[in-house]
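Just wondering, can you check both lines?
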Amino acid sequence: MAMNEALERAIAAVTAPGKPFEIETIQVNGVDFIGFVNAPQNLRELYRSGLSHDSELYVYEDDRYSFNEAWQLAARVANKLREEGIQEGDRVGISLRNYPEWIFAFMGITAMGGVAVAMNAWWSTEEMIYGIEDSGLKLLFVDRERLERISDSAEELGIELVTVRCSHPAYPEWHDFIADVSDEMPDSTILPEANATLLYTSGSTAHPKGVLSTHRAICNALLGWEAAGAVGYQMTVNPDESVQQPPPQPAPTQPQFKPATILSVPLFHVTGLVVQLLSSFRHGRKLVGMYKWDVEQALQLIEQEHITSFNGVPSMAYELAKSPSLKKYDLSSLQSAGGGGAAMAPEQAKEIDNKIAKGASGTGWGMTETQGLATSIGGPAFATRPRSCGRALPPLVKVKAVDEEGRDLAPHETGELCIWGIQNFSGYWNNPDATKDALVDGWVYTGDIGHLDDEGYVYITDRKKDIVIRGGENIGCQEVEAALYEHPNVAEVSVFGIPDQRLGETVAAVVCLEASTRLSEEELKEFARDRLAQFKVPSRIWLGYERLPRTASEKIFKRQIRDETLQKLELEN
């Protein structure tokens, strides 16, 4: 049987009427999408379903919280927000490390109809002010590091702060904030099309864009991963037979281990929020957090907490595989390991597969704009196609490549990759022009350049957007350039990505200085640190006095500059 025919039969069997993944047509903004009949109507309903799991939701150092305890704490947050005058649709921000309070705040905000603004915890003061003003926050939960960055501006911004794991005489502290309120979840009618989240993502503009998503998009995305797994399972059994309830993840090699994963990336990132946190409510999966990423601690946690799956950026799984301490720990509970958000080099995939994934390594591709859902690849398919990020996840997602006029391209023809599906975002906050460019007839134009092969496997070969992807985190080159241009000695600057074995890419800059001025690389880096999050500060800066190369239209010729810089790096090595 041809692969496509087998796939279509498996999809039909899994999504048939009466089955857990039964599908229906749902119209959103005039576009007919595929949706799931049994998807939760909103995130509140998703959280309520978690009460059926008599197990732990989140473990953080010595703190352990069950699904029921998380629900009660979220209810306190929701009730207190109501008391504070927060209405449905109002934006409430979270700017914390991956503390347990992050999760309870997010649950409470979205369960009472508010829009959770998951602010990048690495942002500088200037970036935080931009996010607060752009989103129109009514209230912001902050920890000590974020409080130090924003406290001097809070009064001028007119925003209420709630401190977490720290105190300040001018603001209520978390425990006081939720004291003396009911732990019964307040009533609220939240329609599927209501806005739920606002996440900021860097792109080709000087400021990050706010990605607005609905409850419907997020909840359908969660079932999208499960359904795709069910379709794959169906194909391995018999595509002509119906599967009543396929497992949502690979059957455990040792059934005594309950589903558990490490929260390996920040919760403000779509991978941490949707892929790791919110999907845990579906399976009763335990999530184990860390103060910050540490390879040795991660190995300890895999053994101590019986972690069954690991999903971060590719560099993290690779660091686990390469750790000299690897053999000190019992990793027998681990059934799968992989990552997404950045390219996984073939040598990384091979190392992960040989040492920790037991034939179940994998990767995927998605965006903040698609709830992280787009493609996936693992197992034998990944072993034979290590440079592919997988196929569109059935039945929700479609992927195509288009030319500059928007015409669909044939297999192996290179163009801009586009993602279709009900999981796509609603638009960019306060930016209708950017929304119009990115969302066309239900398709998200990703800015990634690549092609599909004859079997639908996607290959990303270049980037249309002017961004650097450092360890899975998008960095807008124009944003970095704008910060460097603020230095009076900088005449011209070009920012781009250079290869990095661990992170995939890091930020680099070539700078032309004003004549008769002096500036060192470290001085310019220090200048940038005052204006940018640390991860956006260039790791390498080349300084000179020659005018930067230009194209025929007198634009700075970034591609030539980058190519010349890569040649320099090769000579250095």
